[in-house]
Design a protein that fits this description.
single chain; 90 residues; alpha+beta; Alpha-Beta Plaits; 2 helices
């Protein structure tokens, strides 16, 4: 099975609006592994790994986030898969 891995950094009003929990739910819904965390600079950073279509779906969700979020920018980087399992909110 082909796997994809993407690192996503989202800026804007993205902390304190349940962004990490929403990302966790989307990852679970699509069977994607990885993690999500709040960064000290106010951004949210996440890594998603799994089937390419599922990873793309979660990345697409990150571009808008939960209803309370105001995403200003989304930076996506492709990385080599490392075999992530499970999904963690850091």
């Amino acid at each position: 099975m082909s796997r994809a891995r993407r690192r996503v950094v989202v800026t804007g009003r993205v902390q304190g609006v349940f962004f990490r929990d929403g990302a966790r739910r989307e990852a679970a819904r699509h069977g994607v592994a990885g993690w999500v965390t709040n960064r000290p600079d106010g951004a949210v950073e996440a890594v998603f790994e799994g089937a390419p279509d599922d990873v793309d779906a979660v990345v697409a969700w990150m571009r808008a986030g939960p209803p309370e979020a105001q995403v200003e920018a989304t930076h996506v980087t492709q990385e080599e898969p490392v075999g992530e399992t499970g999904f963690r909110v850091r």
